[in-house]
Amino acid sequence: MDIDDEDDDWNVSAESSDMFVMGLSSDPVGEAPSSSRVILHFDLDCFYAQVEMIRNPALRNKPLGIQQKYIIVTCNYVARDQGLTKLMSVTDALEKCPQLVLVKGEDLTHYREMSYKVTELLMSYCPLVERLGFDENFLDVTEMVDTKMEQAPSTELTFSGHIYNEESLAASASDHPRLAMGSLIAAELREAIKSNLGLTSCAGVATNKLLAKLVSGTFKPNQQTTLLPESTADIMASLSGLRKVPGIGHRTGQRLKALGLLTVRDLQCFPPAELAREFGAASAQRLQNLSQGIDDSLVTPAGPPQSLSDEDSFKKMSSTTEVLKKVEELLTSLMERMHKDGRQPATFRLTIRRFSATNRYFSRESRQCPIPNHIGQKITTGSCDALAQLLSMAMKLFQKMIDTNTPFHLTLINVCFSNLQSKSDGKGSITSFFTQRSPKKVTSVSQQQDNLSVKGFSTCTGSPENCSTFANDTLDVRVSRSTPPMPSEQKQPPLLRKFIGTPLSVKPPMPEWTQVPAVPNELHRPSQPLEPDLSHLPPDVDPDVFKHLPESIQQELLSSFQAGERGDRQGTSSQSVTAISCNQKPTNQLTKPPSKQSSIAAHSAGSDNGDDRAKQTADQTFFSAHRERLRISCAEQPEGNSRASNTECPSNVDPLVFSELPPELQQELLSEWKQQKPVLKIPSKKLERTAPTKDKKATTKAGQANNLLNYFKSN
DNA sequence: AAGCAATAG
DNA sequence: GGTTCTATTGCTT
Fold it and tell me: Could you give the CA distance from residue A534 to residue A711 in angstroms, rounded to a whole number?
């Protein structure tokens, strides 16, 4: 989750204002020489709840809780007034508030989309936007402030919103014109978020990220606060414990406690040498800096994610068959997301968590391996073939960790694609050029200099759509201006489209696809591997999947089959239809026969949201292509053979893969499915994700990376 | 490159 | 702090 509305307040203590910071030895390379930075932190109010209330206004007046598994991850203010808090168990919540309205929040799609719209909106004003979870954003508006200061004399500047410890402050506004300007910008942006997206938020204005984040929560719902440098010590001292300091997590908190340090003050006063003995010089310095409200970290715009993963946790999983099914389920979802992203994963990782009464959390183990190019290509292409091969890769990795011959007890499985490469890149020589220039740290100074093209306020006032468009334009402009040295090549529209989320619709236009065979073709010409299978499907073929599976796994599957042969009858109608959809959402799917018309149905079925029309179109071709394919594989090899085939297929197993599994295994799967004896204790979460709008980000490869750097790094 | 640890929301 | 699912970064090998 990423909810953290109320509470949170961290502290730092000490007496340093950033003015002092400048003189410190730890001063970062790119620190501005003359003036301090102006950093903003935005935090959307109970984000998930707000999104749900927008989707269903009727919920506004009622106590609303967003449920995930068995806990309330967040709730609206009506519910909070009745004593609910985030992360409260559903039972406790209902006890406190019987009339509580619960909305399932496992599907993060809507939240993710809205989250990116917010970031996108902010980016239209200032390129230096760093996301922190779904509901928080940092902005470095230093350049914007300075530009505006030049335009308008700072004389009559007044602050917008609160000023931390205002009462006890002697002077203020006129002494900090730049922060005052920052507060005006914050107010403007909050208003933009409200008018364009309908979301209220809190904002913090300060001279660094740490302080901006700390102040943003001082006045809770829908308000903003500015922290003046002279109040740094105060806000730090106000924190109730070291854990409240952003950057000091569970582990570090424990280690500090072991040193006898509990409060911010304790850390501030602790001998640096001793601290360094425990954490090393660098970490020690950073920790002590944090305790003093000093934070040199830069606002680093993050592009598209560097990895995509899907995972599920459960009470117990102890059979290879279950693992196979779960992995397939996760992979199917992940591949769908990967396909939308457009980039090609070069490495695959499987992570598991073994049951452990003690030390519940940290027992994750993982194994990874490179993804052969031809397979990676299929993933991006949307070919279902890849599933079988990835599945076998996954099972091999699984074997590296688990001895399938001895009992095991897993409580989590995760699949991950990383090392994402842009399609068009081709890894040319230029690639190194881009990857070289530390994609990471870019001095704020240089960043700011590149942002001179930032536009003024009030430019984005239209509807969300207009705003997106607008953002698009401004970004284009900025890019062209601030990226002279970049051997930019392809157009940026695609990326923006994705980022903006609204239009994202069409994927084809993207340069990356030029190399790839058009989806439509795929539609009529199933990829190689599958063709042959179809030909000799009737018998007990065991093509792709089974064939690729590690021998020991094959063995086990076969043996387990013999052992557990059930007399399952088939029949169930609706489920069998589920098979049509390529995305294996176990759930409900369509209930109508596999007709070509139901094309988009499958996709939308997977995500219950209704506002993703645009995105759906993006995958329309993808899904229809697969539907076509599945129709072939399922419909053409029906009756005859002994396998369950098209009519019978566990709703939680991908039909295509299922059809390619050996009959024995199919039987077993069916058997289990019918008995509903799924071993998953916990209401196996749904894994939903799939952020249609979310992807964008620079890969290490030239092609898109180029664009992304233009957008996000401005360097 | 692979695997783990820490942090965060 | 717990909980769930991601994601990033840095350390170690």
Answer: 46
